[in-house]
Amino acid sequence: VQLVESGGGSVQSGGSLRLSCSYSNHTYYAYCMGWFRQAPGKGREGVAYIASDGVASYADSVKGRFGISEDAAKNTVYLQMNSLKPEDTAIYYCAFYPYGTERYCATAIYGYTFWGQGIQVTVST
Predict the structure, then answer these.
(1) Per-residue model confidence as pLDDT tens digits over 18-74
(2) Rounded CA Rg of the chain
(3) Cα distance between residue 119 and residue 122, in whole Å
């Protein structure tokens, strides 16, 4: 599965951005898709996840501010980011977990075997 992120850029604190992740056609009947990020000097962390049945989950750091959704007809997953903070500055990656289910989307990170190239999001004060 090929993944391509778009929609990144620079925004002021309190602003919004919407990231898109376009994915290639696939035949997996169950899967998870996730958004991850990596800030300078830090490890990669999970931000938001969505299972093929539409159930979403979020990291505590973004809960209430970010929303993940999927438009399967367009082969696209979105990450709507509101009330952005400087600490949200990072490279954001989307990833695909074949045969993943709701129960494991946020925990079985090793299951994400397809990754996009990443896109920069910068939030300034």
Answers:
(1) 999 999 999 999 999 999 999 999 999 999 999 999 999 999 999 999 999 999 999
(2) 13
(3) 10
